[in-house]
Amino acid sequence: MFSDPLFVVMILAIAAVLIILLMGIGTFGVGGEFARKNSNRFMRYRVYAQAVAIALILLFIWLRGGN
Hints:
The protein is mainly alpha-helical. It is 87% helix and 0% strand. The protein is built from two helices and no strands. The longest helix is centred in the C-terminal third of the chain and has 32 residues, at 32-63. The protein is elongated and about 50 Å long. The two termini are 16 Å apart.
């Protein structure tokens, strides 16, 4: 599976979603002015990255036959 470039890109997109999610949760935990300025931004980035990851997963399934 790791020899397939689309699979690798899909895994990287999923990892990016996880990293952004953890950064957003960490921002909520910090609180204060930093959280007020950045928490919504991180969650917005997560939604965008998650949409890309889902699209890549669906593309991978569609191109590989989708059994």
